[in-house]
Amino acid sequence: MRCVQKVLLDNHVSKIRKLKIWGKSVKRKFDKTHREERRTHTHTQTRYANDTMDHVLKAKEAAQPHLNKLEHYLNTSTDPFASLIAKVSEKTGVARLHLVLGVVGIVLVYVIFDQASRLLGGTLGFAYPAYRSFKAIESSHKEDDTQWLVYWVVFASFSIVEIGADLILFWFPFYYLAKLAFLLWCMYPGESNGSAFIYTHVVRKFLIKHESRIDNAASSAHQYVAGATKKE
């Protein structure tokens, strides 16, 4: 009996040893694979960084002659622009070339950021509300129908005002970013919803006050179009 138990114990110990050996083998393979992946990832990052640096150096070499000409112009010219840059450079202690490049960089960042805000605002102002309006139409609740009808009334009113004021508003810094924030406020799904606030305090009061005039103008236009259509 003891012999049988000893044999079973030896087999059990042998299996445990084999499992430990197998576990160490798997761990070594995993560590090796992980090291190779890290080495490959690091190599790829280094290659991309080197390629990016090469492009930057090439661009700098290509732009250097133009930068030299610009620096020479700023240092030697007496025209109003160069004189203005010289005065600002004296007061700030910043080199004339660096001053001009800084202003150009700020303008480029503003243009890129503002155009992105313009594109995002235009897309967001139509796409998301249109989808939410579709969901409202397909639902059996009336509250969401009213919410998005109010949004479209406010959005249409804002668009009409924007058409007339666009030439002025265009020159305000980050106007399209402010417009994006305004549209997000109008879509806000809570008690602080901007559309409900603007509709209640501005649009509704204006339309109620001028409702009869608007109806008469619309009726006259309808009659005119109907008469013109009959003549044809």
Describe the structure.
The protein is mostly helical. The protein has seven helices and no strands. The model has no long low-confidence stretch (mean pLDDT 79).
Features:
0% strand; mainly alpha; 232 residues; flat
Summarize the entry for a quick read.
By secondary structure, the protein is an all-alpha fold. The protein contains seven helices and no strands. It starts with a helix and ends with a helix.
* Rg (C-alpha, Å): 35 Å
| Helix and strand pattern | HHHHHHH
N- and C-termini, Cα separation = 116 Å
User: Which ranges are low-confidence, i.e. pLDDT below 50, for 5 or more consecutive residues?
Assistant: none
Provide the residue-averaged pLDDT: 79
Count of individual helical segments:
7
Strand content: under 5%
Shape: flat
Q: What oligomeric state do the depicted chains represent?
A: single chain
> Which structural class best describes the helix and strand composition?
mainly alpha
Q: What is the β-strand count?
A: 0
Secondary structure: helix percent: over 70%
Tell me the major beta sheet. Answer: none
What's the arrangement of secondary structure elements?
Blueprint (H helix, E strand, L loop, with lengths): L1 H75 L3 H13 L3 H43 L4 H27 L5 H13 L6 H16 L1 H21 L1
Helix pairs in contact: 1-2, 3-4, 3-5, 4-5, 4-6
